Amino acid sequence: MVASLQRFYSALLFLSCVSMVACLVAISLNMLTRVVDGWTIAGLDGYAGYAIAAALFFAMPAAFRHGDHIRVTFLLDRAKGTWFRALNLWSLVLGSAMPVYIAWFSCRMVWQSHLFHDVAQTGDASPLWIPQLTMAIGTIGLAVAVIHALVEALITPDAAGTSPVDAVRSE
Which residues, 6+ apart, have CB-to-CB distance to 136 below 8 Å? Predict the structure, then answer.
């Protein structure tokens, strides 16, 4: 199960890289068309923005799993033993509620955009549910990653007292 979740996080990270390249292509193509003939392709600036947002949301699960997110640990750094475990579990339980809610909201927003045929305000009026889908997938991935960390913290009592920050510092 852990290996398949890791593949899921890696696949989302790969999609994040593809999104960054897509952003580069959209911006470069927009600049090139302006220089060559002074004309623009409608919606390219919007697509660049969608690609940046997709890169952000696709990268969130892997960033969380690798400890690259900013995590305020001033209490966890000072807690040891049972207190560390209790504070860590409490923060993971509260921390899992937010991405679960955002994932639910994102999926609902995609569904409503599809249902009402919502279109982007850019020059090409593309369906808005397509770029919104990247947000929904990314937030689902983040929710899975935080819940995965919560489950790991629940089933590994020997990790109590070991701060994730200490693990990063020792590398």
Answer: 103, 106, 107, 109, 110
Per-position DSSP letters for 43-107, written without gaps between them = THHHHHHHHHHHHHHHHHHHHHHTT-S----HHHHH--THHHHHHHHHHHHHHHHHHHHHHHHHH
The answer, yes or no, to whether residue 160 has pLDDT greater than 80, is no
Q: Using alpha carbons only, give the angle 9, 13, 17 rounded to the nearest 5 degrees.
A: 170
Residue 104: HSE in the Cβ half-sphere, 13 Å Cα cutoff: 5
Residue 41, classed as helix, strand or coil, is coil
- Closest to 165 measured CA to CA, from 91, 99, 60: 91
Q: What is the pTM of this model?
A: 0.83
Q: How many helices (H) does the chain have, and how many strands (E)?
A: 6, 0
DSSP state of 38: S
